[in-house]
Specification:
The chain is of the alpha/beta class. It is built from 22 helices and 10 strands.
């Protein structure tokens, strides 16, 4: 198995001390909308038009009350009334169009974020996934981006719409009466201060909530998989796991309540004050008249109050939008953390393409360590595997066997030295060439929750049915598949649990046969199988290995006696190399490993020569 690298801290959650990064974060959010600026400009035009049309209604109302009705001008009254109806119709049409366009843009941005994060994770090195919970990754892609949906799809439009409405309404109010306008806007600084306080509180709670949701997602992924269910039931932990989940769920419920109620009373206070403003305006108009100020016409007063009431909705919405933006910054922070992760294994700027590799593999003074400051896992490894030959790597657990093999397909990059394929450094090869040239069959076979055919075609999507059958026959699994009620359309189940270990390994071999790679890496592919199953799988491996360069990470030494060369690793260094017979005659580490596997009951020569069956 591939050893896990040392634990590296996972990306941290957003905290209140991130305030200094907010301008930069806002700029990054705006960049997401840049490809759609033409559509957003159209939304802006629609918003401005809707705001101007809606502001015209109170002026039409003033003319109705001050002119058309007192002077009994029926024609003018009809025109003004039709104008108010037309304003309502146009406002509604503009609103529907702007919602359609803004929602489309928002969903495109959501799509860009999802695919951007997924593509970035596809390029992350293997060590990232060995230290990151699957549930955490799923939470970022599904949970965080899903929670941002309302913000991304409607916030931009809401900001423009409400800001335009507030500005247009304020200008109209000033045109009607500047004194009443000052009365209406006197409390605005208080409202802004309250909304900022509420926004900071919701941002903090949102970060906590998303972290808790990620914890729950990881728990569900681990405990409700087939392996998790088997482990929980066989260990008698089902009830305990249910209690743990209930506790995590309770914490999430508490956070949801806190998030919903954060600043609710403060914002309600704003709503009460703004709802009471009409009474204050009527009082102010009367007070100005009593102290000798100019009288306001009934139409002007009603129009002003109508505008003020119209100001209530966009102003409150604008304050709430500011609160939502601050809360959503925590979500954007988590997404940007993943987008900013360094990709340490990258394709060369001018990659070399192999049309068909011969398969010669060389390790030239290779040194590798998971931690730059720690002890290297491999040290100064020099090794040549000629094309079409087989190499077996043996040694005690932790000697660096799997690490050596996984340097070839670049699951890790060397710390020093180089690994070459047909004389070309694997770091200089394009990813497609390297993937086509090197096939890996590991001890932990992974099968998709799909049909047998879909699992096989994962290696070659264009494979015909005849090619699937040929690959399955070569892997000695066709007869078993054909005997199933649904044949190649049989769903293998979660991680292939409808098949035995040997059957899964042979399916994995058939999948690799379809790819037809010149270089084959077998990472302890039979170590977890019983002797009889191992014999069947080994026959399939022998058929697959014919004519290919094969690197075998050996756990059972009986599987490598025919290798063209065998190397023994000890603490990351090659301490022995040769054929099976040469190493037995040397009677050193390899011979000791053979005797240990035989349990000391038979001479090494007799044991290693026996059939694995």
């Amino acid at each position: 198995m591939l050893p896990s690298p040392p634990t590296t801290p996972a990306p941290q959650q957003a905290t209140d001390h991130d305030q200094e990064t907010r301008p930069g974060q806002l700029r990054r959010i705006l960049v997401l909308f840049r490809p759609y600026r033409a559509r957003l400009a159209l939304v802006g035009v629609l918003v401005a038009a809707a705001s101007l049309v809606s502001v015209a209604t109170p002026f039409l109302l003033r003319e109705i009350l001050d002119v058309a009705i007192p002077e009994q001008r029926t024609g003018l009254l009809t025109l003004l009334a039709l104008g108010m109806i037309a304003a309502a119709v146009l406002t509604s049409i503009f609103g529907v169009l702007q919602t359609l366009i803004s929602t489309t843009v928002g969903q495109r941005v959501m799509h860009d974020l999802r695919t951007g994060v997924y593509s970035k994770l596809q390029r992350m090195p293997l060590e990232f996934f060995t230290r990151t919970k699957t549930g955490e990754v799923q939470s970022r892609i599904a949970g965080d981006i899903g929670s941002m949906q309302a913000t991304v799809t409607s916030t931009a439009t809401s900001l423009v719409s409400n800001a335009t409405s507030v500005i247009a309404t304020t200008v109209a109010m000033l045109a009607l009466d500047w004194r009443l306008t000052l009365v209406s806007l006197a409390l605005l600084p208080l409202f802004v201060w309250i909304s900022r306080r509420v926004g900071r509180e919701r941002k903090r709670i949102t970060a906590e909530r998303q972290k808790q949701m990620a914890t729950m997602a990881a728990m569900v992924t681990e405990s409700l998989s087939v392996s998790g269910i088997l482990l929980g039931r066989t260990m008698g932990r089902s009830e305990s796991l249910s209690r743990d989940f209930a506790e995590e769920s309770r914490r999430l419920a508490d956070l949801e309540v806190r998030s919903s109620m954060a600043g609710r009373w403060r914002m309600a206070t704003i709503g009460i004050i703004m709802a009471a403003l009409p009474a204050l305006l009527y009082w102010a108009a009367g007070a100005m008249l009593l102290i000798g100020g100019p009288a306001l016409s009934i139409g002007t007063l009603v129009a002003f109050v109508t505008l003020q009431q119209g100001l209530l909705r966009p102003a409150t919405s604008l304050l709430n939008t500011g609160v939502d933006i601050q809360a959503s910054l925590a979500l954007f922070h988590r997404i940007f953390e993943y987008l900013d992760l360094p990709v340490t294994i990258t394709e060369s700027a001018d990659p070399h393409r192999l049309h068909r590799a011969r398969g010669e593999v060389r390790f030239e003074n290779v040194t590798f360590g998971y931690e730059p400051s720690g002890r290297p896992t491999l040290s100064e490894v020099e090794l040549i595997v000629p094309a079409g030959t087989s190499l077996a790597v043996v040694g005690a657990t932790g000697a660096g066997k799997s690490t050596l093999s996984y340097l070839v397909p670049r699951l890790y990059d060397v710390s020093d030295g180089r690994v070459t394929l047909d004389g070309v450094d694997v770091r200089d090869l394009d990813f497609a060439s390297l993937a086509a040239a090197v096939g890996v069959v590991s001890q932990e076979t992974y099968l998709l929750h799909a049909s047998v055919a879909a699992n096989l075609r994962f290696a070659k999507p264009t494979a015909t049915d005849a090619e699937l059958v040929a690959a399955a026959e070569a892997a000695q699994i066709h007869d078993h598949i054909a005997a199933l009620p649904e044949g190649y359309e049989t769903v293998v189940g979660e991680r292939g649990y409808r098949f035995s270990g040997g059957e899964k390994q042979r399916l994995a071999l058939a999948r690799t046969i379809l790819r037809d790679p010149p270089v084959l890496i077998l990472d302890e592919a039979t170590s977890a199988l019983d002797t009889r199953t191992e014999h069947a799988v080994q026959q399939a491996i022998d058929a697959l290995s014919a004519g290919r360069t094969t690197l075998t990470i050996a756990h059972r030494l009986s599987t490598v006696r025919q290798a063209d060369q065998i190397v023994v690793l000890h603490e990351g260094r090659i301490v022995e190399r040769g054929t099976h017979e040469e190493l037995l005659r040397r009677d050193d580490r390899y011979a000791a490993l053979v005797r240990r596997e035989a349990g000391g009951r038979e001479p090494a020569e007799a044991t290693i020569g026996k059939s694995p069956a």
